[in-house]
Amino acid sequence: MSETAERVATACPSCSPDAETVHEVLSSGGGRVTVRCTECSHVHKTQIEREDDVERDVVVSQDGESFTATAEAPPSETVAVGEEFVLETPEAIMVVRITDLQLGDEVRKEEATVEDVETFWTRAVDNVRVNVTVNPDDGREEESKSVKVDVPGDFEFEVGASEEFGDEKFRVKSIALRDDAVGYDFDPLSEDGDTAVAKDIKRVYADDETSSAWSAW
């Protein structure tokens, strides 16, 4: 389920004929695979025993709705909440992030092998909808409004920066993060220059910068 190149352990006839080293798989076919040694870059063919992939259910949450698909992966592969993978469905190909691993009735874990997982609970992260609470430029928070913006998952919001989407223009004041967001020192982010990508954001809080009068809402 990983997006990175497949790697295997095998002997290298050039630098390590008697011990296994890590190799990158370049191509496969005819029962043999072409690999490149990560130690000396030697390219050669070898025989590798492969596991048969197993099929697992995947529940995808997207824009407040959900649907079920299936994915295949090696049974011994370890997966964890927060990891992302490419999911192919009859309707689309998308990137999803694991939010929960269901191993059985009432049994959920943060990490497990694919063999033990019954259902992957995920959310789509390649294109996301971000909730933005916009306050009037005079600071009257009781008259704030909520807008939604659709952006790529890697779109970056910055505290202190101005954003414009259609008729909406606002200055980001703070950013609340999702529970599965990692790599951030604080939540919420509130210092000018703090940034977060859209797929990690629960809500953006901002001040209005539109030219139209606030009373026109």
List the helices and strands and how they pair.
Blueprint: E1 7-12, E2 16-29, E3 32-37, E4 43-46, E5 54-62, E6 65-73, E7 78-80, E8 84-88, E9 93-104, E10 107-109, E11 111-113, E12 119-124, E13 127-135, E14 145-152, E15 156-158, E16 162-165, E17 168-177, E18 195-197, E19 201-208
Parallel strand pairs: 5-12, 13-19
Antiparallel strand pairs: 1-2, 2-3, 3-4, 5-6, 7-11, 8-9, 9-10, 9-12, 13-14, 15-18, 16-17, 17-19
Concise overview:
By secondary structure, the chain is mostly beta strands. The chain has strands at residues 7-12, 16-29, 32-37, 43-46, 54-62, 65-73, 78-80, 84-88, 93-104, 107-109, 111-113, 119-124, 127-135, 145-152, 156-158, 162-165, 168-177, 195-197, 201-208.
Alpha carbon gap, first and last residue: 47 Å
Strand % is over 45%
Give the biggest sheet.
6 strands, mixed
Poorly predicted spans: 213-217
User: Helices and strands, in N-to-C order?
Assistant: EEEEEEEEEEEEEEEEEEE
Q: What is the general shape?
A: elongated
Count the beta strands: 19
Give the rounded overall mean pLDDT. 88
Secondary structure class reads mainly beta
Number of helices: 0
> What does the radius of gyration come to?
23 Å
Instruction: Please bin the fraction of helical residues.
Output: under 10%
Textual characterization of the structure:
With 217 residues, this protein is an all-beta fold. It contains no helices and 19 strands. It has strands at 7-12, 16-29, 32-37, 43-46, 54-62, 65-73, 78-80, 84-88, 93-104, 107-109, 111-113, 119-124, 127-135, 145-152, 156-158, 162-165, 168-177, 195-197, 201-208. The strands form five sheets. Strands 5, 6, 8, 9, 10 and 12 form a six-stranded mixed beta sheet that branches. It has a five-stranded mixed beta sheet with strand order 14-13-19-17-16, with no helix packed on it. Strands 1-2-3-4 form a four-stranded antiparallel beta sheet, with no helix packed on it. A hairpin with a 3-residue loop joins strand 1 (7-12) and strand 2. The termini are far apart.
